[in-house]
Amino acid sequence: MTRKKFLGIVAISLCALVSFLVMFLGFYPGVVYGPDLEQQLAQATGNIPFNDWHPPLMALIRKLGIAITGKVSSLFVAEISIFMLGLLLIPLSGFLTGRFNLFWSLVFVSLPLYAPILIQTGRLWKDQFLTFLLVAAVAALCMSGKKRRHLGLIAVFIFLASAAMLLRANGIFGVNTQIVCIFRACRVGLVSCPAFADV
């Protein structure tokens, strides 16, 4: 690896860390706003029984996070971590394969600093979690690697995409659109997607 590549990786990673810290420090422990989130938190903490007011999966995930960490902030930290990991892996893999230059890689990992996006990252609605899962799913497919990693990357994509569809029934439209767009981008060489490279 050249010194220029190494410094680029460091710059992209540091920029991603800044984006993560801004989200974390700006909204910790997560914004509970509106009856949906209030019901979700009450179910997760055992104050009320589970019901279908809000997707039970959200409350179950939050309940699991609280059980493991003992903190109600666990869902928030998990969401922004998944989001930032996806936003980091996509440009990082593109930069390493020469498809993204350093400037656009830095812009990509700085997206959470854009106010309309930033303000949404602190809210624990299912819509945000669905979006973050889909970003991570794209990252799984866009990572460069050898053919033996294809099945693993596809499995990660299927897992994340399935979780997104369980959060919202209309998540299937987002997943289908992703597959079409990623396939076309891979075919014309805009991104590196080993899972689709030989299709």
Topology:
Blueprint: H1 3-27, H2 35-44, H3 56-69, H4 74-96, H5 102-109, H6 115-121, H7 126-142, H8 150-167, H9 171-188
List keywords for this structure.
single chain, 199 residues, mainly alpha, 0% strand, disordered C terminus
What does this 3D model show about the protein?
The protein is mainly α. The protein has one domain (3-188). It contains nine helices and no strands. The radius of gyration is 18 Å and the shape is globular. The model is unreliable at 194-199 (pLDDT under 50).
Which stretches of 5+ consecutive residues score pLDDT under 50?
A: 194-199
User: Care to count the β-strands?
Assistant: 0
- Share of helix, binned: over 70%
- Terminal-residue CA separation: 29 Å
Strand content of the residues, in percent? under 5%
What is the overall silhouette? Answer: globular
Q: What's the gyration radius in Å?
A: 18 Å
* Helix/sheet category: mainly alpha
Number of helices: 9
| Sheet having the most strands | none
Give the total of domains. Answer: 1
Average pLDDT = 78
Elements, N to C (H/E): HHHHHHHHH
